[in-house]
Amino acid sequence: MASGARWHHWPMQKGTPERTGYSPHVMPNISKSEAWTWQAEILDIHRATPLIDDQLNVYVTSIAGRSVKFSPDGKKLWSHYTGVERGGVPGVPVIEGDRLLMLSTFGFLISIDLETGAEVWSRKVTQMSDSTTDCLLATQGVVVLSAMDPVVSTLAAGRTQRWNATLQEFAFLAPAHSCGWTYQ
């Protein structure tokens, strides 16, 4: 972790860059009741891991691309929507420093300010992503992601199309949102 970096409780899928799923924190006793609940205003599918920052705020992102930040006591602090033109978010975003980063279906890497929910930047990094490229990895200011580079093939009859996909790996320097390397 970089000097002065924020230490988040659960910043990515399975909690740590090692993806162990281990947390040093003791879970509160919820056997009698939940601490709080939330009902989405729009019917979305929420299957991504909720993320927890250094102040115990919770971030939930739907497949449709709606992200919501909650305070530790369940108060909705902000929401962000990727928009139809960039597609939904099929996988799990990641918290890196003071940003929430996500990869959209149509290949946009999007950076959201943790405090305000405002979009800081968005960059088209690939043609598309899907649920087989489902989570980002962030460590020491570098974000690693997988994406699909689709190729449309027309079969002999000329009527049927199918997608052939090449999996690509990318590494981005999170603060500068510049591509460090790709692997195909």
From TrEMBL:
SUPFAM superfamilies: Quinoprotein alcohol dehydrogenase-like (SSF50998). InterPro entries: PQQ_b-propeller_rpt, PQQ_rpt_dom, Quinoprotein_ADH-like_sf, WD40/YVTN_repeat-like_dom_sf. It holds the Pfam family PQQ_2. Residues 1-23 are annotated as: Disordered. Residues 1-11 have a biased composition (Basic residues). SMART domains: PQQ. Residues 70-164 form the Pyrrolo-quinoline quinone repeat domain. This is Pyrrolo-quinoline quinone repeat domain-containing protein. It comes from Durusdinium trenchii.
